[in-house]
Amino acid sequence: MPVYHSGRLSQTQRPDYNYPLRPQTPDLTLPMAPRNLMVTSPYLIGIADIRWDNPTLIPENNGLCIAGVNVYRSTDNPYGPYEKINDTIVTALFFRDQTQEYLVEREDATPTLKFYEEPDNKWVVWTRYKPVVKPGSNGDSSFRSQDVLVEIDDGDGQWLQVPAFALNGRTGEITLISGFTYNHTLEQTIPPRLPKPPNGKIRLSYRYLKHAVVSALNQRIYYKVTTVAHDPSNPGSYIETPLDEVSARSTFDIEEVDWIWREAINRNRWMLEQGGERVKVFIRKWMGETCDSYEYQYGQSHHDCPNCMGTNYKGGFDGPYDIVIAPPETERSIELSDMGLHIRYDWLTWTSDYPLLNERDVIVRQNNERYIVGPVNYQGSRGAIYQQHFTISHIDEKDIRYKLSITGGETSVPASSDVYREALKSPASPVINAKPEIPEPRIIRGRTVTFENITW
Hints:
single chain, 456 residues, Immunoglobulin-like, 3 domains, six-stranded antiparallel sheet, five-stranded antiparallel sheet, 2 helices, 26 strands, disordered N terminus
């Protein structure tokens, strides 16, 4: 039976290096997650089907009263955050995640007089829910005034349908007709019908997006399924599998990796550990809360916006996360462009199967050089991913993406770990190598775990 040490310092303030650290084991008092999680498509846009095996058949769940499962989803990022998408505990072995549009009929709203320099002042009203979407469009925001029904009582006690002047589906802003219009039936100019106070009223009918499953070329969606059981120590409450102990499944994972290719993936990772370069990656957001600087007229934010880093969504990127990539295989040069001097350093590289990368993600080397990820080619067979091949291009230091904060902050040293004193935080974290049998004046330190292969 192997012997472990706890990782805590002894009376000599040093752990026993002869014993490995105790491995992390799941809490067996909590239910185990369902096995053989699978994400498939019913060949319909905006729909994903999730399936799993019966968690009551897992031997570790014997003795627990299993109530069902919870389904969690994360967009673009396998590390989360994950949100629960089922309203009640799922008791079946199947769950369909799909885009849901809801119809709001005759919602009371409060109009506002909005001041413009040009043209004259206009009346606007906002929907309670947003975004307002085109019916049957799989969640596309609507900018068509005919997709919203406006009814106005100007104080005479009659509700009349009035066409809207403009609609911004993303913000739910509806601009009313505030000027005179020509009625071709009556052949005369008629004044606008406005819900002016104190007796004016307005109500809206529209469709809004409550639940979205975006289907796009750049979309990465991850799912986790946890087992929920009745708490034996507290009747009426539940216990659930911790999300950290559950493996995520992506819509890209068409088939499981068999044991032969799993060994090939392990050997590829060994090659990266020995000869690859440890870098950090920021995963670009493709969904989320729209940035305040987003220009609806142009369909994008400012490229140097500090809130979204030019991605259109607040935060801009998730991360950083540690990965190992293959070393560079190209020449470095400086060229003169229309914008001034530019470093030309584009190279083809590859990494392992996780996490999934995509175009416009940002890679940071340990010398703080930053690169943008180009098109990603997923290598594998039968739908199982083994490697990711992609190009990276150098980003000029004036770019806003150099303000992405690395671990420790912009003014602090990134956290490093001693490979002999504590468990390595990640494959790309700086490492302070230490050999207890080597005198301190003679020791040579490096940044990677494999540095000792060269020096000792």
